[in-house]
Write a structure and sequence with these properties.
With 133 residues, the chain is of the alpha+beta class. The chain has 2 domains: 5-58, no CATH class; 60-130. It has 5 helices and 4 strands. The protein has a 4-stranded mixed β-sheet with strand order 2-1-3-4. Strand 3 and strand 4 form a beta hairpin. The termini are far apart.
Length: 133
C-alpha cells in the first residue's frame, strides 16, 4: 500500500503535536530515515509543505504574505494581524513581509489564494474600472 504525501504529513503532525523542540528534531530525523527506507525521500518537499499546511490549520495559524515598498512599522504589523485574525478567524497570524520597490505605495495582503490589493496601482486600476475606462 502506497502512503500519500498527505498521510505522511498528517502522521508527522500527530507525532509532533505537544512535543518539545528537541523531541521534534529527533522525530524529524527519524521521519527522514523512514522516507528513505520507503523510497519516498524525493517527496520530502511536498510532504513538508503539506505538514506546514496541516500544522497551521490545526493550530489556528494563518500565513499572510504582505507586499510593501518599505519595511512595515510595528503599528502597521499589528493592524494587519488584527485584520487577518478577524477576517480568517485565526488564533495566530504569521506575516511574511515582501519588499517590492516596484510598488509606489500602499500594501498587498495575500492569504492563500485571496489577495487584498490596497496598493496605489491597485486602487488606480479599480478607479479606472469603475469609471468604465
Amino acid at each position: 500500500m502506497k502512503i500519500s504525501n498527505s498521510q505522511y504529513a498528517l502522521a508527522l503532525y500527530e507525532a509532533a503535536k505537544g512535543k518539545s523542540q528537541s523531541e521534534v528534531n529527533e522525530l524529524v530525523a527519524n521521519f527522514v530515515k523512514v522516507l528513505a527506507k520507503n523510497n519516498q525521500i524525493k517527496n520530502i518537499n511536498n510532504i513538508l509543505s503539506k505538514f506546514n499546511e496541516t500544522w497551521n490549520r490545526e493550530e489556528g495559524i494563518v500565513e499572510a504574505e504582505v507586499t510593501v515598498r518599505e519595511k512595515i512599522s510595528p503599528e502597521m504589523r499589528s493592524d494587519i494581524e488584527k485584520y487577518v485574525k478577524t477576517k480568517y478567524k485565526a488564533e495566530k497570524v504569521e506575516i511574511i513581509e515582501v519588499i517590492n520597490k516596484d510598488i509606489k505605495g500602499g500594501i498587498i495582503v495575500q492569504v492563500g489564494d485571496e489577495v487584498a490589493d490596497a496598493s496605489i496601482a491597485g486602487q488606480l486600476k479599480k478607479l479606472k474600472s469603475s469609471l468604465g475606462k
